[in-house]
């Protein structure tokens, strides 16, 4: 389940509260727990083993383990900071009469007729391949406050795309 993670900046942590779904917060907490309880211990053991063997072989295994340790520690610190600033939006507060944070939106691309469905989520849980787009993305921003039947224009590097809002749910 290795996916690219967004790199949060110190400015983000100092300036803003980031909205997140209940599921998104649970996923971040589970990742943090996994890193703390399993992966960090495994890499420390790998470092110990590499040190023993390293006396006879090249130190590349040891160096790789140290890099992995640094990556894991950096991700732990990032997750701890993210969890300090997120604000969970309960499922009961997700609107269904207009698009808001947490809404599931069914759209029709007016140029192609293709239908797509997205959940509007926070930037730390966005994954377009899973149908989750950030409320801070161009499409996410354009959809906020729209109602069923509204037409949305989204400007992207590839050009302008128009969508019609077909359905809004939780």
Helix content: 40-55%
- Please give the CATH class of the largest domain: Mainly Alpha
Strand line-up across the major sheet = 5-4-3-7-6
Helices and strands: which structural class?
alpha/beta
Q: How confident overall, as mean pLDDT?
A: 87
- In CATH, the topology of the largest domain is named Helix Hairpins
N→C terminal distance: 25 Å
Shape: elongated
Q: Please identify which CATH superfamily of the largest domain we are dealing with.
A: Transcription elongation factor, GreA/GreB, N-terminal domain
Give start-end ranges of low-pLDDT stretches: 1-7, 9-13
The CATH architecture of the largest domain: Orthogonal Bundle
Count of DSSP-assigned helices: 4
How would you sum up this structure, described in words?
By secondary structure, the protein is α/β, with parallel strands linked by helices. It folds into two domains: 10-89, Helix Hairpins (Orthogonal Bundle); 91-169, Chitinase A, domain 3, CATH 3.10.50. 42% of the residues lie in helices and 24% in strands. It contains four helices and seven strands. The strands form two sheets. A five-stranded mixed sheet has the order 5-4-3-7-6. A two-stranded parallel sheet has the order 1-2. The longest helix is centred in the N-terminal third of the chain and has 33 residues, at 22-54. It is elongated and about 65 Å long.
């Amino acid at each position: 389940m290795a996916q690219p993670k967004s790199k949060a900046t110190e400015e983000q942590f100092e300036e803003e509260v980031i909205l997140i779904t209940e599921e998104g917060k649970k996923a971040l907490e589970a990742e943090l727990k996994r890193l703390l309880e399993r992966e960090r211990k495994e890499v420390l053991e790998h470092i110990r083993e590499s040190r023993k063997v390293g006396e006879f072989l090249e130190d590349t295994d040891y160096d790789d383990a140290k890099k992995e340790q640094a990556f894991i520690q950096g991700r732990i610190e990032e997750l701890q900071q993210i969890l300090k600033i997120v604000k969970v939006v309960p499922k009961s507060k997700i609107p269904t009469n207009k698009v808001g944070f947490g809404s599931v939106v069914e759209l029709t691309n007016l140029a192609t007729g293709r239908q797509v469905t997205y959940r509007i989520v926070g930037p730390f849980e966005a994954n377009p391949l899973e149908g989750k787009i950030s409320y801070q993305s161009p499409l996410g921003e354009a959809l906020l406050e729209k109602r069923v039947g509204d037409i949305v224009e989204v400007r992207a590097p590839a050009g302008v795309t128009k969508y019609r809002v077909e359905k809004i749910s939780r």
